[in-house]
Amino acid sequence: MHIVVCVKQVPDTKIIKINPKTNTLDRRSAPAILNPYDAHAVQEAVKIKEKTGGTISVLSMGPPQATAVIKKSIEIGADRGYLISDRAFAGADTLATSYALSKALERISKDLPVDMVICGKHAIDGDTGQVGPGIARRMDIPPVTNVIEVTEVNQKEKTVLIKRKLTSGYELIQSELPCLLTVEKEINDIDYSPMPNMIKAARYEPTIWAVSDLENVERTQLGLKGSPTIVGKMFSPPRPEGGKRLEGSADEQVSQLMEVLMEKKDLLTIQSSK
Amino acid sequence: MNLDDYRGVWIFIEQNDGKIEGVSLELLGAGRKLADKLQVPLSGFLLGSEIKQLANQVISYGADQVYIIDHPVLKNYRTESYMKGVMLLAEKYKPEIILYGATPNGKDLASAVATDLNTGLTADTTMLDVDVENRLLEASRPAFGGNIMATILCKKHRPQMATVRPKVMKALEPDNVRLGNVIEEKISLQEEDMRTKVLQIVNDVTKKVNLADAHVIVCGGKGMGDFQNFQLIHELAETIGASVGGTRDVVEAGWLPHEQQVGQTGETVTPKIYFAIGISGAIQHVVGMKNSEFIIAINKDPNAPIFDVATYGIVGDAMEILPKLIEQFKQLRTEKGGEISYA
């Protein structure tokens, strides 16, 4: 069983600062982390490998410092890591990103055929969730998104049983292997990394590929050039007028609020139960 | 690609078990405006098994045309079968715009279709408009991080596609005498060719919190300080029979499960009363709650943007105000000896 997990380095949105003048984020202020959903994707690969054996590879696209998220994935339990890094990839939207990653997957599967690809549901810096299904289409394997449980992997039959989250409830899906999964956070809890993994990660040097290391790449499909979407403009959200401010001490404010609420009989009433 | 070959605004009509999803009806309302501006027909397209009877509903909510692919293999949503249907329609009729609800299935389908059509797709849109002169869809969504919106354009590829958050757009009042065309397309699909099977669908009826349907929501942000203080949010909610929500920060801090997150990456809610407590009001949160009927904000910072969307604002310390508010409600209940109910 060869599982490839696609991971992304993202700025930590919890810590990132916003420039009050421009209303945009100050990327320099944020530490870079492994996208949280991707951490769960790596952990799920580790859980599957415990039962099936095999190899876990992680794949990322980004600047050279993105090797940090590959090392983090090794800590969680991945065996190998690949980073595709090239100026030609810069400015990619989801379509160009899935193209580049699928070309790297092609190269990886030449060495060792891929049985399963796992991605996080989405990256917290873009929140799109579009790259996973895009990779699946380019590899011509079935995508199963919003996965909350990998119930069973049958290596003999080459099938997998999966629970996929729906708007209310879930569905049980059987898919052929290879397939691509995108996972929700609730799929697992991330274990503490065992010491040998930490040591391995600290020493690990991922394989780094430039565009020229990949095969049959159409350069027009990469990066900014290969991206059909562009950001047209940025604007502050329309500011509504805002409502009334309640003045006075805390006690006064609370009693004013109660008065307002009690007047709104169409919203809320206190009924006598007798 | 000749962009002028592409005309018309199309809406993916998502149905589950023969029932049309609310977001699809909302998109017919939003799509109607875009189609009128561009002076083109508005079409709904519908895939499934034995779903022809749904066409009239699609027309009554604003469509001029309904495209239907009815096939037993399409009974349950699957990426591989549904995308074949959408590809067939899109390549034959060449719409200039296709909108999908940002539901699990809508997002999954749109991502797969965009890849095969080699076109642009904007995720989780909250505002839609068109630049009529250039026939460009202007799909806007909160940009990462900052309190700011970004408008995404797809200038050189067609169709222009976007997924749109549920409960953000408004459906039209249904007009049952409205007329439209129903066009049925045939597709050849074999169950044996499918690589995925839906074995079972489990509807979670025991879902504890259904925020999307709640009448009153008490929502807390990181201004609550810590997990201990956040319990005041639960206490107020319990006292008045409300549901509890939280911001992304609160969920990431582990104070609440993800199901209770309100905002761009959580639920969009439209309750009668919404308490926003210790919430600054970043656009990522506001898009998920601004259509609430009556919004009460409590925050220390008088300049917090949450006050812009609030019906009533209290500048003050939630730790001081909440216990007083809870006390008042408890007292009222004791005096009247009854329950709080909501119209």
Automatic annotation (TrEMBL), chain A:
Coiled coil: none annotated. It holds the Pfam family ETF. Residues 228-250 are annotated as: Disordered. Residues 22-218 form the Electron transfer flavoprotein alpha/beta-subunit N-terminal domain. Keywords: Oxidoreductase. GO terms for molecular function: oxidoreductase activity. InterPro entries: ETF_a/b_N, ETF_b, ETF_beta_N, Rossmann-like_a/b/a_fold. This is Electron transfer flavoprotein small subunit.
From TrEMBL, chain B:
Its EC number is 1.3.1.108. CDD domains: ETF_alpha. It comes from the Bacteria. One of its GO terms (molecular function) is oxidoreductase activity. Keywords: Oxidoreductase. Signal peptide: none annotated. Residues 9-198 form the Electron transfer flavoprotein alpha/beta-subunit N-terminal domain. Belongs to the ETF alpha-subunit/FixB family. PANTHER family: ELECTRON TRANSFER FLAVOPROTEIN ALPHA, ELECTRON TRANSFER FLAVOPROTEIN SUBUNIT ALPHA, MITOCHONDRIAL. This is Caffeyl-CoA reductase-Etf complex subunit CarE. It comes from Neobacillus rhizosphaerae.
